[in-house]
Automatic annotation (TrEMBL):
GO function term, MF aspect, one: guanyl-nucleotide exchange factor activity
Domain DH positions: 101-302
Bilayer-crossing regions: none
Record protein name field: Epithelial cell transforming sequence 2 oncoprotein-like
Source taxon at top rank: Eukaryota
Region (Disordered): 1-31
Family matches, as SUPFAM superfamilies: DBL homology domain (DH-domain), PH domain-like
Amino acid sequence: MESNGKEGRSLSIHSQAKPPSLHASTLSTSRPCSISTYSSNTSSVSDPYSMSFLTDNQTYYNQIVEDISVIDNVCDLFEEEHEYVLSGKVQVLDSARHVVYKQQVISQIIQSETIYVNELYDFQDTYPFEIRSWLDSTDDKETEVKLKTTSIRKTLDSLFQILNDISAIHANFLRQLSERFQIWGPTQLISDIFSDFYKSLDLYETFFAQHPEFVVALDILYRLPAFSKFLETKVNAIKQRQSSLKIADMSYYLELPVNRTSYYCKVLHQLKNYSDTSNPDYAFLGQKAEKFRLLNAEWSERKKSCQAHLAVLESSRTIINCPVTATLNRRLIRQSDLIKVDLDDLSGTSDVRTYFLYSDLLIFCKKQKGSKKLTYKGSLSLSGAEVRHLQPALLLKMAHVKKPLFRIGKKSDDCSSSPEAFGFEVITTEASIDAVAPMYFSNGSLPPQMASGPVRR
């Protein structure tokens, strides 16, 4: 160990040992915080930032680390502020976009409502006055009898009045929407207009309750040749006079209000989704959407009944010589093409018929050659009838394909498409479903007959 003569001055202290081997360590007083090692089993812990290469002076080293830390903190603050600004801008953009989307939905509602109201106005401008005038002035004997024996006139007055009232509430709803749309902005509300509109929908309850009477009255009128001729002539004259006027058949206006309320459920959900959660409209629109959903669920069966009733009216007008009339309780359940099987030739598939299944009646029709029109061929009353599946043995015979006596060409190896059959039989007290309508039979004690209507596949 060496030292000079002056006090207080120290010199570097080095080990006089041999140079260190690969696993030896070197200590230097000039780097009190630095531990250098050659060992592969240890790590550097005195220089956590790995910046000791900048200076050997510990004071400078600490100052550099402190300065860099300050710079890092400032950068972090700027990044947080930048992210906050970006987040704010995104929120502003989303809010602005939702305001535009909400405005677009309102515009679509206005367009749809305008079309609906105009169609109701077209009905009011065309049918009520003309039909009332004709009923008052007609000298057709058959029409006069119907007017005396039925309540057609009273029912028609109710129909004209209720469609006029429905058009009035929708016109008021349309006016309020249009006025609000003109001043639309981010703070505008729309739920209050739907709230007032919802309160006026009780009128649809009356419409659904009287709908069966409207259908029956219209069916009676359409069966009067004089009325059908008058209506066709008058409508054509109005169309020629006002080419822009779109006039539909009267039955169309009985169907028009049936599904209208379902439309508002969808648009209310869209308006809610495009409303900011902090906007009062968000909660109120959700409440109105739920009310309309419950209302549609309550009216669901009535709507189906109205559509099935109108289908009876439509089928009676499209089927030639159809004896089926629209009654208050009759509904069309299903129509389909079926094959009548001859018991003497169970594999025959040529007798294709179109069956109409009503709630109390089954009729079948056949297409005329060279025409798509259906002609009535027969009917079967379902009162007291029993419907059951065909017996398996009969189905096997129906699916059996007769092989020709002589075969020309190669024998086919494809057996994967073997024919199948299924069907039903109706046990009834009618003499024959192929004869005429059941109304021509007065004797209900005839022995049961079986009529088959299987589908061949």
